[in-house]
Amino acid sequence: MSLSDDESVADAICSRAGCRACAQWRIDWRNPRIHSADRTKTWVACDDHRDYLRGFLEARDFPVVVAPLGSAEAAR
Ligand SMILES: [Zn+2]
User: Fold this and answer.
1) How far does residue 71's CA lie from ligand 1's centre (Å)?
2) On the chain, which terminus has fewer CB atoms closer than 10 Å, C or N?
3) Cα 39 to ligand 1 centroid, rounded to whole Å
C-alpha cells in the first residue's frame, strides 16, 4: 500500500483489514528500525478503528501522529 500523498488519502478506505468504512482519520507513523527520520508511512482509519490502529503502533513504540483526514476541506 502506498498512501503517501494527500491526494490518495482524500477519500480513502480504512486501513484496518476487512474494514470497508470511509476513513475519517490519518495516522502518520514511522518504524525507526527500518525508516529514516524523514520517512513516514500513512494509514487511514474510520472512527471505529482509529484507536485500534494507533494502539497497534504505540504498542511497538513507533512514533504516531493522528490527525483528522481532509482537515484542509473542513471549511467547505
Ligand atoms: Zn475501520
Assistant:
1) 18
2) C
3) 24
Grid cell listed for 61: 513504540
Give ion ligand 1 contacts, CB < 5 A: 14, 16, 19, 21, 46, 49
Q: Rg of the chain over CA atoms, in angstroms?
A: 12
Give the pLDDT confidence of 7-52 residue by residue, as tens digits: 555 578 999 999 999 999 999 999 999 978 889 999 999 999 999 9
- Distance between CA atoms of 23 and 26, rounded to whole angstroms? 8
Cα(70) to ligand 1 centroid in Å equals 16
Q: What is the pLDDT of residue 74?
A: 46
CB-based burial, 6-27: b 16+ in 10 Å, e otherwise? eeebeebebbbeebeeebbbbb
CA 68 to chain centre: 9
